[in-house]
Amino acid sequence: MSDRDPSLSTRDPEMARLIADENRREHETLRLIASENYASRAVIEATGSVLTNKYSEGYAKKRYYEGQEVIDQVEELAISRLKELFGRTAHGDKADIHVNVQPYSGSPANLAVYLAFCKPGDTVMGLALPAGGHLTHGHAVSITGKYFKSVPYGVRKEDHRIDMDEVRSLAKEHKPKLLWAGTTAYPRTLDWQAFRSIADEVGAILACDIAHISGLVAAGVHPSPIGIADVVTSTTHKTFRGPRGGMIFCKKAHADAIDKAVFPGLQGGPHNAATAGIAVAAKEALDPAFVDYAKAVVENAKHLAQKLVDRGFAVTTGGTDNHLMLVDMTSKGTTGKVASKALDKAGIVLNYNAVPFDPRKPFDPSGIRLGTAAVTARGMGRPEMDKLAAWMDEVAKAPADEGLLARIAGEIRELCNGFPAPGIRLG
Ligand SMILES: Cc1ncc(COP(=O)(O)O)c(C=O)c1O
Question: Which end of the chain, N or C, is more open, meaning fewer C-beta atoms within 10 Å of its C-beta?
Answer without folding.
Answer: N
